[in-house]
Amino acid sequence: MSIRVLIADDHKIMLAGLRSLLEKQTDFEVVAEA
After folding, report:
1. What does the angle CA 15 – CA 24 – CA 5 come to, to the nearest 5 degrees?
2. What is the per-residue pLDDT for 1?
3. What are the angstrom distances between the C-alpha of 16 and each of 1, 2, 20?
4. Which of 1, 8, 19, 24 has the least C-beta neighbours within 10 A?
5. Residue 18 is part of which domain span?
6. Angstrom distance (rounded) from CA 26 to CA 34
7. How far apart (Å, rounded) are the C-alpha atoms in residues 12 and 2?
8. How many Cβ atoms from other residues are within 10 Å of residue 13's Cβ?
9. pTM for this model (two decimals)
10. Number of domains in the chain
């Protein structure tokens, strides 16, 4: 079972970096960005 994550940040580069980092991990699923 994976951990579902919502990423919230006002900097696009941080959103992209965090998404990339988390998607490489099998335990996390990015479900939304804000």
Report:
1. 50
2. 85
3. 24, 20, 6
4. 1
5. 3-33
6. 22
7. 24
8. 8
9. 0.75
10. 1
